[in-house]
Design brief:
The complex is a heterodimer of chains A (about 230) and B (about 170). Chain A folds into two domains: about 110 residues, no CATH class; about 90 residues, Arc Repressor Mutant, subunit A (Orthogonal Bundle). Chain A is built from ten helices and three strands, in the order ααααααααβααββ. Chain A has a three-stranded antiparallel sheet. Chain A starts with a helix and ends with a strand. In chain B, helix 4 packs across helix 6. Chain B has two domains: about 70 residues, Orthogonal Bundle (Arc Repressor Mutant, subunit A); about 80 residues, Winged helix-like DNA-binding domain superfamily/Winged helix DNA-binding domain (Arc Repressor Mutant, subunit A). Chain B has eight helices and six strands. By secondary structure, chain B is α+β, with helices and mostly antiparallel strands. In chain B, the strands form two sheets. A three-stranded antiparallel sheet of chain B has the order 1-3-2. In chain B, strands 4-6-5 form a three-stranded antiparallel sheet. Chain B is elongated and about 60 Å long. The termini of chain B are far apart. The longest helix of chain B is centred in the N-terminal third of the chain and has 17 residues. The chains are: A mainly alpha (about 230), B alpha+beta (about 170).
Chain lengths: ~230, ~170
């Protein structure tokens, strides 16, 4: 049975039995087991509705099967109702924000069809000021600049740069492959398998980049850097 | 003074949108006259089939390309701010937008899961930023949306965001 159909069914049952004080005749167990379990992942939000409705109906049926006592502790009843209302309110709030998130994305996408005349501030906003800053030594910077201009005039030019430095994107891909395979790992165990210092530097930069984008989580204690995949994304 | 020449030149070279107050203060133009000049320029651009116009609101103005030729500009389009943003990140963005200023804990409470990485992703994109701390033990950071977010949403202040109910009014009508 389709999950959405079942949810509608449960909603109407709940509405009916909360408005009438009669015993619930339906076999709830059969009703709940009548849909195909394989759809859970695709309809996770409907499944959340399903769980809430199902638990409410079960609770109602269980209560009505008990002997009805006039001396009900209404304070307990109110507390239970409050918890349930809170859970339902949170579910609704979360679902609302999920849908608004999609609506905001759609609006931004629509607005991005109008391109502003290109100015450097567009890139400035994309790269906010980093938490860590390095001071540049003026003399060293001048030496590097002179070497760059010197090389620029030579036949070899900047070929040495491509030759010497490992590719950062490759390092990120390699790092994510390693992290994917293990539940958790450490930076030290990854760099142990590398051959050169430059590769280790590339891996460290890859680590920072992957943490920045939220692909992985890394925590440094006194001895090592623990790395694990970020399952929240 | 030929206002059209000066205004178009300033919009061309300015660092971002230009506030109306700049034109008002430096060239003694009233706001209504300024809007009229924008309209005139836009009419001329449109009549001559140019691919851009002056987009203005209550506060500022800037040159933008026409939406109708968006597909022809695909090669020149800057990468979308949304590129690679996951659904959880979008949920987090909507929570920050409507609940701001908001703490990480509050966002996590609404979503039911830890939201630190989503907040960091949004922060690194420049869509949200830290803005002070909450005056309770632990002093948690408060997050708010940025001017870039307003710009991307095409609004000039956060109060102009649609009311929450507006997103669902169509569903109710159905």
């Amino acid at each position: 049975m389709e999950l959405s159909y079942l949810v509608d069914n449960l909603k109407s049952l709940l509405v009916r039995y909360t408005s009438e004080s009669i015993q619930i005749e339906e076999n709830l167990y059969e009703l709940f087991t009548s849909f195909e379990v394989k759809n859970f992942n695709k309809e996770i939000e409907s499944y959340a509705d399903f769980v809430l409705l199902a638990s409410s109906l079960f609770e109602l049926k269980a209560k009505r099967m008990l002997p009805q006592d006039d001396e009900v502790d209404w304070l307990d009843e109110v507390e239970i109702l409050k918890d349930k209302d809170l859970a339902f309110a949170r579910l609704l709030q979360f679902k609302a924000f999920s849908e608004i998130g999609i609506a905001i994305a759609s609006k931004i996408k629509h607005n991005e069809n109008e391109i502003k005349s290109f100015k450097y501030y567009q890139t400035k906003n994309l790269f906010p000021k980093p938490d860590v800053e390095y001071l540049i030594d003026k003399d060293k910077f001048e030496n590097v600049a002179q070497e760059v201009f010197h090389r620029y005039k030579t036949i070899e030019g900047f070929k040495h740069i491509d030759k010497d430095l490992p590719d950062l994107q490759d390092a990120i891909d390699d790092l994510l492959k390693v992290v994917d395979k293990r539940l958790n790992t450490s930076f030290e165990s990854i760099v142990n398998d590398l051959n050169t210092e430059k590769e280790a530097i590339a891996f460290f930069l890859a680590l920072l980049e992957a943490v920045r984008w939220g692909f992985i989580k890394a925590k440094q204690d006194n001895e090592s850097i623990k790395i694990e995949k970020n399952y929240e994304l | 003074m030929n206002y059209k020449k000066v205004i178009t030149a300033i919009l061309l070279v300015s660092d971002g949108s230009v506030n109306h107050s700049y034109f008002q203060e430096n060239f003694s133009i009233e706001k209504d006259d300024l809007i009229k000049i924008f309209e005139d320029i836009n009419t001329e651009l449109s009549d001559n089939n140019y691919g851009f116009y002056i987009k203005y609101d209550d506060k500022s103005s800037d040159f933008v390309t026409l939406r109708t030729i968006s597909s022809d500009l695909a090669e020149f389009k800057p990468p979308s701010i949304l590129r690679g943003l996951s659904t959880p990140a979008l949920e987090t963005l909507s929570i920050v937008a409507y609940e701001q200023p908001v703490t990480k804990l509050k966002v996590s409470e609404i979503r039911g899961v830890e939201s630190e990485s989503s907040l960091k992703t949004l922060e690194s994109r420049g869509l949200i930023e830290k803005s002070g701390v909450l005056d309770i033990p632990g002093n948690p950071n408060l997050f708010v949306t940025t001017n870039l977010f307003l710009e991307k949403m095409n609004i000039s202040k956060i109060e102009e965001l649609p009311l929450l109910g507006d997103y669902f009014s169509n569903i109710e009508e159905e």
